[in-house]
Specification:
- With 273 residues, this protein is mainly alpha-helical.
- The protein has 9 helices and no strands.
- The chain starts with a helix and ends in an 11-residue tail after the last helix.
Length: 273
């Protein structure tokens, strides 16, 4: 029961990934197939989640939208880790002006919420998936740099690191051999949380027309298009909204479960009593 959140998070995240993978070779109907004659149909045996205002199959669009959301989130989080983690480890190892400069950069980025920062970048560079990835990735760089720095500073103060330095190991060797493995659990947990934020930010950008552009399906774009038809077909907004909620919930629960499983301080002591 201690890892219930991990199990539920794995289940929900697994469903998200499975839907995205299956969409590469099968969907109930082509996601971009327009048919005015079948527009705004309710859920049925032919269209399990109904059709939208252009006659497109909603389930097919949600499946392909999952693929696009995962792609944006994965690249944005990967960009944040690839740049932010080395910066954080460097700041922890060198301290001084490097550490101070990184801290001020992080403070500047954190002065604006993640979604607001993404709005600003995409408004300046223009709409599109690439600019959405860049906007979300810039915020993730500061997040991973701050997390890696804080965790690494704690590891640098431990006796085994001081012993390695006393034996003549350089800062690079100590960082790669001792520091990085000991902060990897924290970074993995942060990656799941950042992934959830990236999916939410991508949906918000697409809702405003700044993210993934038509005809590529996007959960946020589906919500935007559904608001006009809410009185006659509310399921058009319910289904993509539920997909966003379940994806974010699953990733957050997965992060909580991984934290409980990977952090030795949260493990129950054995042999007590």
């Amino acid at each position: 029961m201690r890892h219930l959140s991990l199990g539920v998070g794995l289940l929900l995240t697994g469903l998200l990934v499975a839907a995205a993978l299956v969409s590469f070779f099968w969907t109930p109907h082509p996601a971009d197939a327009i048919g005015i004659a079948r527009r705004l149909r309710p859920p049925s045996a032919e269209h399990w989640l109904g059709t939208d205002q252009l006659g497109r199959d909603v389930l097919s669009m949600i499946m392909v939208g999952a693929r696009n959301s995962i792609a944006v989130g994965a690249v944005a989080v990967g960009l944040g880790m690839a740049v932010g983690v080395p910066l954080g480890l460097l700041a922890a190892a060198r301290r001084g002006w490097i550490d101070e400069g990184l801290s001020r950069f992080a403070d500047l980025v954190f002065a604006f919420p993640a979604i607001l920062s993404a709005f600003l970048v995409t408004a300046l560079l223009g709409p599109g998936a690439i600019n959405a990835i860049l906007a979300i990735g810039v915020f993730n760089v500061a997040v991973f740099a701050r997390v890696a720095r804080g965790a690494a500073i704690q590891v640098w103060g431990r006796p085994f690191v001081r012993a390695a330095l006393a034996l003549g190991r350089g800062p690079v060797s100590v960082t790669l051999v001792h520091v990085l493995p000991n902060v990897s659990a924290v970074l993995i947990v942060q990656a799941t949380v950042a992934f959830a934020v990236a999916i939410l930010a991508e949906a918000a950008l697409s809702y405003l027309g700044l993210g993934i552009q038509p005809p590529a399906p996007s959960w946020g774009k589906m919500l935007h298009e559904a608001q006009t038809f809410m009185p006659m077909r509310p399921t058009l907004a319910i289904f993509p909204g539920a997909a966003i909620a379940l994806a974010v919930l699953g990733l957050n629960l997965l992060g909580d479960g991984l934290r409980d499983a990977l952090d030795p301080r949260l493990r129950p002591s054995r042999g007590a009593g």
